[in-house]
Amino acid sequence: MSKRLTVSEYWDLIFEKYNILNKIEKEGFFIISAEQIREYKEPRLMTKFDFSKQLPQIFKKYNLGMLPINNGTYILGDFNLYSKLPSIKPKPKILEIPSYIETIDPNNVYSESNALHVALLSGILDDAIGEKLVQTISGRMRPNGFSFKVSTSKNNKTRKITIDRPQIEIDGGYESLNKVILVEAKNQQPDDFIIRQLFYPYRYWNEKVKKEVIPVFFTYDNGIYTVYVYKFIDPYNYNSLELIYQKSYIVQYGNSDYKKKEILKNIHIIEEKSQKSVPFPQADSFNLVIQTLFLINDGINTSSEVAENLGYDKRQGNYYIAACRYLELIQKENKEYILTNLGKKIIDSNELKMNEILFKQILKHKVFNLVFKEYIESGKLLNNDEIAKLISLHIPELSSTKNGSYNSTPKRRASTVRSWVNWLIGTII
Known about the structure:
Layout (H helix, E strand, L loop, with lengths): L6 H12 L1 H8 L1 E5 H5 L4 H4 L10 H5 L3 E6 L2 E5 L4 E3 L8 E4 L15 H11 L1 H6 L4 E8 L4 E6 L6 E6 L4 E8 L3 E8 L5 E3 L1 H11 L5 E10 L2 E9 L8 E12 L3 H11 L19 H12 L5 H8 L3 H13 L3 E4 L2 E4 L1 H7 L3 H13 L2 H13 L5 H11 L1 H4 L9 H18 L3
Parallel strand pairs: 5-14, 10-12
Antiparallel strand pairs: 1-3, 2-3, 4-11, 6-9, 7-8, 9-10, 12-13, 13-14, 15-16
Helix pairs in contact: 10-12, 11-12, 15-16, 15-18, 16-18
């Protein structure tokens, strides 16, 4: 059986066939059609780079980016297309969904649109914007043509790009007395995002309405809803995006907090296994840990396949596989990964039961247990330095060195502990 190529490997072939690097070097850009891409794989799968980590290796190596300029045509060049998100979040504000709502299940936030429904019903969006909002826009549309400047990675120059009716999609559009809010939503917490998903809708609606248009990036991850409110300082400059402020929220429902405290009180702590056999996790998004489990259930069961589906390189993909092993959800059989009985039980459970099982699996481990217990008792979520000290104390194998030099491993693992505990705090069981 021939080897299945990754998206990155297909792009290597495309670059070679069309001599793209040389043409970008001479012209500053290269235009490619969907038909040319389709010779190798479906364009929809070959052009979805919402986050810079999803870029093919050849794009990363030469600092390249790609934008749609009309229906079925893309421009490639050394464009700066992504905006980094702040690594530190504010303390979440706790809100509740109205008790009379039956058609939206806050225990089962399964998509970006579902997360936005919860955000609207719980008052997250109203609170973040400071005005009462109603939903008025969603879905796909085609703007009229417009031009803009985008910065390049060479000599801080800009390039003018003109687009002609490319397809755009708005996850959620809302209106108040004074503002129009355009939201791009993700059910994970990325390091960055492609500005295009805010800029193209902003340009379209900024020319159609008299009200102020506010671009918003919205994430739901590890039980935390985060709203990033932006502004384009110059409507004609792609890279003029500026973060105004951000707010985070947790939506509580029913008796979830009581159940969490009961589990914490009665949980049995297990001994950590050898770091050589089952390493302490280094996988910051717990939603991606869950996604990894479902990928393996779907037959995507090698480290390279899992990594590609998560949008990571193989090394980072291995971290999420290792996290599933740490929680005893998967095991290795020959060169592939399969579900354990516990993993199968989670797959067969509804989301509420799934969350409860995962909640218990995390709290069996002492460091996670102690950090969550501190939050329950004091309302304080320990910082990375404090968590690193707990890791060094309770898992000395992680902090030991051969020559007594400084070991940064506990500090790196602390961010995973903090992220998973955020999931424990925000998830509903």
